[in-house]
């Protein structure tokens, strides 16, 4: 079969850090946050060499801040959800030293949909203000990794970098503890691990041309003539 179709189950796990500044004492600190992404769609692979996928899914990212003071410690985590739609062309290269795995280069591009939201709330020693704008941002996510192509399965594992094109901050957070202040802004970019399981759903099977049987020569049943000499 030259063309095969799969349903990708696509999972990203990454680490996030916002642009961060603080002032005052005791200091407010930022911890590494978590980025998660889950998507699915339809993938087409041509001759185990290249292909393209159409995917849609949901993203989640959180950002965590901590502070220690003489009266105690406090921690605050803010999470954000958004949706995405993407197209993912890819190419596959054989590896001479590992015939069971291949090198894969993916280049995902698409749109992320951010819904406007704002909140103000006290949390422990913090008072927090956060804002998200109502925008739609294009993004790219180049990826390099290994692919295993089984009889009815396509498995990817790789590294990706998610980058949003935006002229405004996609998330801004202000924290205030009375004597300490901090501001965190981000465009939701992150470096992450990719894991993708893609079971096959259909393939076009090549039709072998019918071979025509050679025609048999009809043998003459006529008896040889006997020529009588006079």
Descriptive account of the structure:
This protein is mainly beta. The chain has no helices and 15 strands. The chain has strands at 3-6, 9-16, 19-24, 28-31, 33-46, 50-69, 72-94, 102-114, 117-123, 126-132, 135-149, 153-164, 171-176, 180-186, 190-204. Strands 1, 2, 4, 5, 6, 7, 8, 11, 12 and 15 form a 10-stranded antiparallel sheet that branches. Strand 9 and strand 10 (126-132) form a beta hairpin.
Task: Give the tags.
five-stranded antiparallel sheet, 230 residues, mainly beta, 15 strands, elongated
Summarize the structure.
By secondary structure, the chain is mostly beta strands.
Structural class call reads: mainly beta
Number of strands: 15
**Which sequence of SSEs, written as H and E, runs from N to C?**
EEEEEEEEEEEEEEE
What is the overall number of helices?
0
Please tell me how large the radius of gyration is: 31 Å
**Residue share in β-strands:** over 45%
**Overall geometric form:** elongated
């Amino acid at each position: 079969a030259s063309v095969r179709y799969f349903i990708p189950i696509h999972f990203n796990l990454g680490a996030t850090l916002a642009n961060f500044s603080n002032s005052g004492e005791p200091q407010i600190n930022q911890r590494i946050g978590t980025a998660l992404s889950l998507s699915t769609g339809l993938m087409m692979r041509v001759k185990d060499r290249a292909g393209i996928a159409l995917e849609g899914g949901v993203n989640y990212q959180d950002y965590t801040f901590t502070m220690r003071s003489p009266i105690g410690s406090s921690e605050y985590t803010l999470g954000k959800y958004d949706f995405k739609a993407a197209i993912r062309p890819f190419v596959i290269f054989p590896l001479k030293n590992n015939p069971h795995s291949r090198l894969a280069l993916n280049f995902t591009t698409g749109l992320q949909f951010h819904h406007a939201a704002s909140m103000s709330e006290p949390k422990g020693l913090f008072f927090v203000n956060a804002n998200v704008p109502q925008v739609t941002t294009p993004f790219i996510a180049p990826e390099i990794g290994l692919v295993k192509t089984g009889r009815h399965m396509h498995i990817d594992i790789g590294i990706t970098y998610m980058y949003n094109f935006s002229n405004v901050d996609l998330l801004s957070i202000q924290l205030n503890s009375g004597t300490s202040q901090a501001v965190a802004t981000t465009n939701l970019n992150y470096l992450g691990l990719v894991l993708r399981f893609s079971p096959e759903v259909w393939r076009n099977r090549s039709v072998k041309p019918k071979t025509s049987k050679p025609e048999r020569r009809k043998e003459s049943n006529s008896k040889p003539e006997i020529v009588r000499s006079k």
